[in-house]
Every structure is written in C-alpha cells, then in structure tokens.
Amino acid sequence: MLYPVKLKCYYFLENDEIFLEWLQSSFSNLFDLILVKGTVTNNQVGHYISLNKNQQLLLYSANQEILLNIPEDFSDNASFILQLSQQLTQFYQVLNTYPDKHPMKLTFFDENGQVVYDNKGFDGNFFSFNQEAQLLEDWIQEKIKNDTKHHLTLTVPSPSFDHILIQDYRGLYDQDGNFFGTFSQVIDLKPLLEAYLEDSGQALVGWSDTTSGASITNNLFED
C-alpha cells in the first residue's frame, strides 16, 4: 500500500511559502513536505524538491530531474496545474517503483512511528499482502534511538522451515544528527546461510557441540 512520500523541500524567499503551502494542500495524497529554508547542500542525497530564486520548481531524484517554471497565477492556471499534476505523479511513481517490486516487507516510519510507506511484501504472514502496516511500537523506536548503532534485529516466528526470518530496524538521521524516522525490512536468512555454507565449506552444528567440526557462532551476525 502506498502512502504520501515524505520529502524535504528547500526554498529561499518568504513568499515561496505561499506556493509550497498550496502545493502541500493540493497534493497531500502524494507528498508530505518538510520545508527547509536554505540551499541544498552538496552532500544532500536521495530525493527532494527545491524552489529556486528564478521561481522554478525542481523535482530531484537519483534517476531523474524535472524543472518547472511557476507562473504568478499558479493556483488559477489550468495548463500549469495539469502539467504539475502529471510531473508530480510521474515523480511519485519513480520514487515508489523499485521498493514495490521487492518480495519481502519494507516499511518506512516517520519520527512519530507513523507508517509513510509499506510495500506489502511477505513478512512471514501469508495474509500480509492485504494487511496494512501498524504504528511502530514505542519500545522499538526507543531501543533504536538508544542503541549506539541505531539498530535493532528481532526474530520473526515462521510456520514453515522454508524460511528463517528476521526483522531488521534501522534509525534514519539527517546530516545534523536529527532523528528522521525508521526503516524496517524483513530478511530471509535461509538462502544467505545456504550460500555462505556452500562457499565456505562449513556446516551448522548444535550450540553445545563446537569441537567436532566447523561451526557458526553468534559473531557471524554481529555488525
């Protein structure tokens, strides 16, 4: 299921806020804009929107840049609104296409634990394709914030021996160290373990028996 994409939006002039507030209210189903007054930094990564001093709107992603001229009568200009709608929809689709294809569950939460994106992938529950992601539990978010690596991994019960599932949580922070949200993904360890064991020639043995042959300890899974 798709949710509004949270985007930073950079601008220079106070008057620019009028346009950006109109943009947010008109396309809130696509984007949740975080207004930042200032210039886009050189180390800004990912995707963002910016409004330059020439009254041009830039829609930027790693794979695409779209530049639109903003007329003075933007809110009443039917031709501009149509063009803007088409470009914003295309931009939204570019940002969401690849995660949607991932077979395992990927979820982004904002700083309040609200879901901002859920690809409805497999999470060990065979009915996950028609279930909406839930609010991130407070104790998980607090544990991520307090961890030195801002990371938490939990095992996921699976009804089948065909999967060994874990749920991996990563805290997201901006360049100033401010908490921005959480990324969660479900990972199937079984194919990874099988590939490792085949390449290394090792084998899994019981935890109580680590002297009779090669074994894998917990250190393998530590960062």
What does this structure look like?
It is a single chain. By secondary structure, this protein is of the alpha+beta class. It has two domains: 97 residues, Rossmann fold (3-Layer(aba) Sandwich), CATH 3.40.50; 95 residues, PAS domain (Beta-Lactamase, 2-Layer Sandwich). Helix content is 25%, strand content 29%. The chain is built from four helices and ten strands, in the order E-H-E-E-E-E-H-E-E-H-E-E-E-H. It has a five-stranded mixed β-sheet with strand order 2-1-3-4-5, covered by helices on one side. A five-stranded antiparallel β-sheet has the order 7-6-10-9-8. It is elongated and about 70 Å long. The C terminus is likely disordered. This is Na+ driven multidrug efflux pump. It comes from Streptococcus pluranimalium.
Brief rundown of the structure:
The chain is of the alpha+beta class.
How much is the radius of gyration in Å? 22 Å
Mean pLDDT: 81
CATH topology term of the largest domain:
Rossmann fold
Could you tell me how far the N terminus lies from the C terminus, measured between alpha carbons in angstroms?
31 Å
What is the helix fraction of residues, given as a range?
25-40%
> Helix tally?
4
- Which structural class matches the secondary elements? alpha+beta
- Low-pLDDT runs of 5+ residues are 210-223
Task: Report the β-strand fraction as a percent range.
Answer: 25-35%
C-alpha geometry: elongated
Order of SSEs: EHEEEEHEEHEEEH
